[in-house]
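Hey,
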Amino acid sequence: MNPFVNVKKRSISLPPGCKDLADVLKARARRIAKLDTLIAWRQSATITPVRYERTGLIHVQEHVAEVISALTTQPSLHIRTLDGLRGVTLYCDAGELNVVPLPDTAERTKRIEEFFATRGIKANIDRAVGEDGAGGILRVLIFLLARDVSAVTVLITGLLRAVYDVADEMGLEFTAVAAK
């Protein structure tokens, strides 16, 4: 017996709504197909970007509120540091609000997972997209969020501070995108 396997925590039970293992595999395939559809749509959509360069995390709430209030137009909001290397994307799809933290290293991806795990949020989509140059695997993680401006603002500002080391008065770029 493998000493690292805790047999008391092992289970053969299936996730809620699944009758057999085939349902589990189909659900995963549907999530991946949804991601592929979203990527294709974002690449083909006629978009109108509006870019704001601001100083400070205090501006996150007003932009999050715009995205949440405009759910019918499938908006997205890209929040990046001015160097473009750190940040997150919020987008709405089929009435659901999702956040995609920017994965630049495998270590950062691990920090992203830990940040959300401590808040009881699991990735809705987890997909390997390449290597980080240091031998680690880069993964895109997409998390489904409640449509609550205050809660999302606290989560995003906390993520930017804890995972991306963004200071409160650091320069940020907010790019709002809405499909026509």
